[in-house]
Amino acid sequence: MKLYYYDHCPFCVRAKMVAGYKQVPVEYIVLLNDDSETCMRLVHKKQVPILEFDDGSAMVESLDIAHKFDEIGEKSRVVSPATDIQKKVTDELSEVSSDINALLFPRNVKASLPEFATKSAIEYFQGKKEKNLGKSFDQAMAETAEHKKKVEDKLATLSFHPDNTNENLSWDDVMIFPTLRNLTIVKDIKMPQRLQDYVKHISALTGIQLYYDRAL
Ligand SMILES: N[C@@H](CCC(=O)N[C@@H](CS)C(=O)NCC(=O)O)C(=O)O
To answer: Which part of the chain is the GST N-terminal domain (predicted)?
Structure first.
């Protein structure tokens, strides 16, 4: 089995969390961000994550892939059911999604991530995301303080009080962790201590690396 993904992609993180936690033997392959050919060959559309089975068949959709990993992974490693908290927290985070994107997108291409190893991969992403943001990456970087403040204010009041001693991953974590993990690419972003502990805890539980060492 092979999982094709981008490191910065929050949907890919969902699938990788469950694969890591449930110790699924899967080969991880990072695609260049402008590699449409591989996606088209496998699933006839440009989208990751993609799970390719040994018989050559393939599937998309992060949560379907995550559930497949849950099904085939180590039985003793249980993913706890989702609760109402995931919608509340993801709704709260989505209130500042344009600020989160303005912080993350320009940093993603500067952080030496493998999906941006070529100039054409960077240009592909940058062209698309600058249109999406309605501003250049340079402008978004110049506005860092403003976007950071909005995101930090939201994090400070987030309705999320995780139990950071729980050794079971939950479907709430699968929905909440990817955004918080991606925000670790923002240098010195202020997160309440419980959320900092949470990202470290879930990172250790799933093997997903954080971005503190390359934050900018
Ligand atoms: N609903 C999909 C969304 C996946 C998605 O939007 N992936 C993005 C990367 S973060 C993508 O492949 N975009 C197309 C592109 O990069 O050209 C899922 O949950 O897997």
So the answer is: 1-77
